Structure formats: C-alpha cells, structure tokens
Amino acid sequence: MPVVRIEALVRTPPDLGALLPAVAEVTGRALGVDPARCWASFHAVPSGAWYEGGRVRTVDDGAPVSPVVTIAAYTGRSLEQKAQALRGVAAAVGEALGCEPGAVFVEYREIPQGHVHTAGTVR
Fold first, then answer.
1. Reported pTM
2. Residue 43: beta bridge partners?
3. CA max distance for the chain
4. pLDDT tens column, 2-22
5. Domain 3-122 in CATH: superfamily?
6. Which sign does the torsion angle of CA 109, 75, 111, 71 carry?
7. Which residues contact 109 (CB under 8 A, 6 or more apart)?
C-alpha cells in the first residue's frame, strides 16, 4: 500500500476528486499495485508557512513555489518502477497545480519489513 503525501502552497486547492485518483493510478501502475490500494493525500500549506528561495513565501508572491511530494512504499521495487512512479506523480501533480512537472519535488522512501504498523500488526 504505497502512500503519497502532497504538500503545496496554493491560493485555491486543486480539484482533489481528480488529483488524488490520478496520483493513485500512476503510482499503482508504476509499482504493480492495485490503485485502490494506494493512499494519497493533499495538504495545503498555510500562506506564510513555507520557506523557499531564501524567504518565507505567501500565496501573494506571484512566483511559483515547488510542491513537495513523498511516496512511501515497501522495499522490493526496481529502479525503473520507482523512476516511473516519480515521473508519473510529478506529471499528475504538475497538471493539477498548473506547474511544470520539473517544478515538482518528489521523493521516494522505501519502508523496510517490520517498520509499519497497520491493521493491528507490524509488517
């Protein structure tokens, strides 16, 4: 169950009904997981609570701020699968937020066995 967390400083949140399923779809396809088993969330950062480019940023800056995305998934994926997930998520987030995929910062974190508690058990 990959988990994708999106953080962005935005004036108006994107269409989450489109963004979150799109992110789950590209993540699941890339990692070989049913997209219904992918979790995705969007977190709007409050204006003035983002530091980038040497200053605290607000929604009134006029200059774009890079969205930050974290994909967390169990170990065992190939480099190509991870790269496909990173590219796909960057494209989906960029499209939803109106920025180039190259402006989206996406990181992939691997979760080793025994480092997750879910459904009442450690996996």
1. 0.94
2. 7
3. 47
4. 999 999 999 888 999 999 999
5. Macrophage Migration Inhibitory Factor (3.30.429.10)
6. positive
7. 70, 71, 72, 73
